[in-house]
Amino acid sequence: MRQALALAAKSRGLTAPNPAVGAVLVHDGQVVASGRHEVCGGPHAEVACLADAARKGVDPAACAMYVTLEPCNHHGRTPPCSQAVLAAGIQRLYVGCPDPNPDVTGGGADFLRAHGVQVHTGLLERECRDMIADFLVWKTTTRTYNPLKLAATLDGRIACRTGHSQWITGQAARRRVHELRARYDAVLVGGQTFRADNPGLDPRLSPAPAWAKNPLAVVLTSQLPDPATDCRLLRDRPTQTLFLTDSASAASETASRLRDMGVRVFSLGEPGRMSLVRAFTTLRAEAGCHTVLCEGGGRLGLSLLAAGLADEFLLFLAPKILGDELAVPLFSGRRAESMDQALGLRPTASERLGDDLLLTFRPKD
User: Fold this and answer.
1) In the beta sheet, which residues pair with residue 356?
2) Which residues does the annotation mark as catalytic?
3) N or C: which end of the chain has fewer CB within 10 A?
4) What would the DSSP string read from start to end of 69-120?
5) pLDDT for residue 104
6) Are 215 and 189 in contact (CB under 8 A)?
7) pTM greater than the 0.85 cutoff
8) CB atoms within 10 A of CB 286
9) Taking 60 as the threshold, does the pLDDT of residue 272 lie above it?
10) pLDDT at res. 5
11) Radius of gyration over alpha carbons of the chain, in Å?
């Protein structure tokens, strides 16, 4: 099942609005065929795995199948996977997560059991459910799926007191950030980060993988930039840039001039106030985004976590110490007088990237 999960992870962000799913066939304790759902509308993981078995001359009927998500039992863009599993003669099926899709009756496991297949469910269920967390958001809300990404020193600082932050992490971690950007429909920053860093918010990979996306650049701010400003987004990719702002700024002359350049400007609420929930529902409804990588800074990141809008937290932690109490903290904007008021998260993964660590957290259940 862990190998099936590793396959599914390769498709994270690339199958929207479908879940990322992996499947393997096992014979005598060895994986002999494998497959994953690679793109929406393409073969599901079970079908891809069976096709791999056919190419390798493997008899599926002699194997057990492990799949991270319960096989679908309904007609969508593709036929039911439950019928493909049954037709292949598989007698033992191990399922990570039951199908949580509220739009269909499900029943893939029940269908197969009714036809004599031994179905075992709940193997690494939490990990498999985490793998389809984005799918759950799409099916149960009208907003985007939002990982939060920040980089910090060991003492929890994301920039020096001067605002200088290049570079906190090393080359391997920075490359991973660009790989992450290439998997998402949009990359979002707050106005302070936009003004301080003049970011491009694009994935700079050479060579670029065939699967790489070119995400929209999104800035959440009540202060729109002067269109004559020499900033990277307006200069290099205005038609791929969106500003989410309040109603007064959205109706301003500055907004009109930005729109003349091809920039999109959306209102999120009354003057001086912007709804975070509306930001992500707008990106999904108006810009066609399913996934948004949020890159901070600290005030925006804390707001997302406190509002339950950060579905993952990816912390790139560098083995550096500034030791300056006036350096920019990882999070700010909240007052807590006891540890009981702390926001709690659930650690799910860790990885070393050069000298840095990538720590992944999710909201507590």
Assistant:
1) 353
2) 46
3) C
4) EPPP-S-SSS--HHHHHHHTT--EEEEEE----TTS---HHHHHHHTT-EEE
5) 60
6) no
7) yes
8) 11
9) yes
10) 98
11) 23
Torsional class of 355: left (φ above 0), alpha (ψ -120 to 50), beta (otherwise): alpha
| Amino acid letter for position 64 | A
pLDDT at 150: 96
Is pLDDT of 288 > 60?
yes
Give the mean pLDDT of 321-339.
92
Q: What backbone torsions phi and psi does residue 9 show, to the nearest 5 degrees?
A: -60, -30
Instruction: Indicate the residue type of 155.
Output: D
Q: Is 15 helix (H, G, I), strand (E, B) or coil?
A: coil
Which amino acid appears at position 250 of this protein?
Answer: A
* Residues 6 or more apart whose Cβ sits within 8 Å of residue 271: 246, 247, 248
Which of 149-158, 190-199, 252-261, 352-361 is least confident? Answer: 190-199
- Dig out the tokens for 328 from the structure: 């920019």
194: tokens are 């936009």
Which pairing describes strands 186-190 and 292-294: parallel, antiparallel, or unpaired?
parallel
Q: How many residues does the chain have?
A: 365
The two structure tokens encoding residue 182: 């290439």
Residue 105 binned pLDDT confidence (cut-offs 50, 70, 90): low
* pLDDT of the residue at 106: 58
Instruction: Give the pLDDT confidence of 201-240 residue by residue, as tens digits.
Output: 999 998 888 889 999 999 999 999 999 988 999 999 999 9
- What is the tens place of the pLDDT at every residue in 9-40? 999 989 999 999 999 999 999 999 999 999 99
